Description:
Keywords: Membrane, Transferase, Transmembrane, Transmembrane helix
Pathway: Secondary metabolite biosynthesis
Number of helices: 17
GO biological process, one term: lipid metabolic process
InterPro entries: Wax_synthase, Wax_synthase_dom
Helix content: 55-70%
Number of domains: 2
Shape: globular
Radius of gyration: 23 Å
Strand content: under 5%
Subcellular location: Membrane
Number of strands: 2
Order of helices and strands: HHHHHEHEHHHHHHHHHHH
Largest sheet: 2 strands, antiparallel
Strand order of the largest sheet: 1-2
Amino acid sequence: MSLQQELYGLTRGLSEKLEEPAPRIVFWAHFALPFLLACLVHIRGTQTLRWAIYPLSLGASIWTQFANNAWVEPVLRIHIGQVFIFWHTGPVTRYILARDPPSYRPAPPPLLVRLRDTRLFKPFNFLASQMRHLGLVPGHPFPTRPPRRFHTVRAVIEHLSSFFSYLLIFELGTYIAFRLAPDTIGSPNLVGGDFAAWCRHLAIGWGVPVWSVWAFWTATLLVLTSSSTPSVYHLLAAVSIALGLYSPEEWPPMIKSPWKSTSINELWGKRHHQLLKDWMLYYARPFSFFRPLHMIVCFLLSMTFHIILYYPITRKLNLKPYLIFYMGQGLGCVIERAYYKRTGRRVGGVTGWIWTCAFVMLTAVPMVELEYSNGWAGTMRDSLARDRSLSPVEWIVYLLGWGKHPKA
């Protein structure tokens, strides 16, 4: 047997194996081993043991990520991808392979300050801080706020208000497609359909140009995906602060009105969430010698992250639509930088806002078509579609007399 035939047989056997669910022991090791490593990180003299456990943890995570875990809810499948990437390839890896324990910035004391010093809480906080990139040294300092009465209570209320606001935006974005096409494009069961034909059908029914329907759904998907992560973030923040485990300063605002961005650099570098910032800069460092290349590589890393994250949902690797969007954002940043170097003027103002909206939406069209066609956009609604009584929008529609009772 030739080497080519052996490789083909190995690849085929591996693909067949990954079409099966990961064994339960591997699935739970995917979560348990990173926590064990985070415990050992804070104990001196465990470097050799950590080096031995890390390949097992990484292997269990890769197996779980790419196996066909159809029994797992879609939301949990996304979390599987986050654990795989952030807990195994993010900044945490630097400490797993390091000799000394991590250093922490002094944080404003929460209500249960003694619990913060326990050995059980430290590894939990160590893993939770990877996405927020706060507290670890080196890292971002804690934001300061002027003292105010009932500081903790007000912070919890603010985060809960933000959670419900983003949840309502997400709800509206997913509800429209679910209401118009509950069995195909808007189905929570990963059905999908011919998105282009659906847009033509809607354009005829609404009496508008087809391009305006595409623009509507592109803007809708961009808004709802930008609101899903902040909604989860603010809910976790409210619960963490209310339980007395974290101070309000450890959960700063996540996004800063991205719809006000007047340049692509401002959108992705300041106003949009920065959860991937440390991770991308760490791996893009070898390309930092040439700024335009460095910027493009950062966006390509973000593309890789999202493709891996969505793979357990669709079981497909569709590179082209994501390459157009993420490479496009990197090129847009490079174009704005070249414009500034040539003219001395930064992109901004009303024209900058129009440029940013138009460029982002145009580059997002192939990605939007893919995510509606393969059913991922409809699946985002998940339990809100399966149990209509959980949906605030369903109750609003019922109270306005536009639909039936959510519990009917």
